[in-house]
Amino acid sequence: MNENELMGSMKVSKAVAKMAIPSVISSLVTVVYNMADTFFVGQTGDPLQVAAVSLTNPIFILLMAFANMFGMGGSAVASMAMGEKNEKRVKNTSAFVTYASLIVGILFALILISL
């Protein structure tokens, strides 16, 4: 089976599941990283530090979700535009993903600094 014809040759549910696996693995790695981080901070014996790490984990996961959304969505749109030989759309997509990621990062930073 040709990877380029994945959606045309497989059931939609199987094709979507196959394409979602990298995102799921990325999320699992992030969760394991956060658990390890909490474990090592817990070795200090200071409950306030553990609480701080535990409170920031959901924020970190939300930020990673935005990163996955822009990265995977942008690469899918750019790939389709490359297949269509539409260089203008590729450049626009790349610029949008770059600036949107930058804006979201700055907004997160401003919100978190103001807390």
From TrEMBL:
The keyword Membrane applies. The chain crosses the membrane at residues 20-40, 60-82, 94-113. Multidrug efflux pump. The lineage of its organism: Bacteria, Bacillati, Bacillota, Clostridia, Lachnospirales. One of its GO terms (molecular function) is xenobiotic transmembrane transporter activity. Belongs to the multi antimicrobial extrusion (MATE) (TC 2.A.66.1) family. This is Probable multidrug resistance protein NorM. PANTHER family: FMN_FAD EXPORTER YEEO-RELATED, MULTIDRUG RESISTANCE PROTEIN NORM-RELATED. InterPro entries: MATE_fam, MATE_MdtK. One of its GO terms (cellular component) is plasma membrane. It comes from the Bacteria. It comes from Coprococcus comes ATCC 27758. Keywords: Membrane, Transmembrane, Transmembrane helix, Transport. Pfam families: MatE.
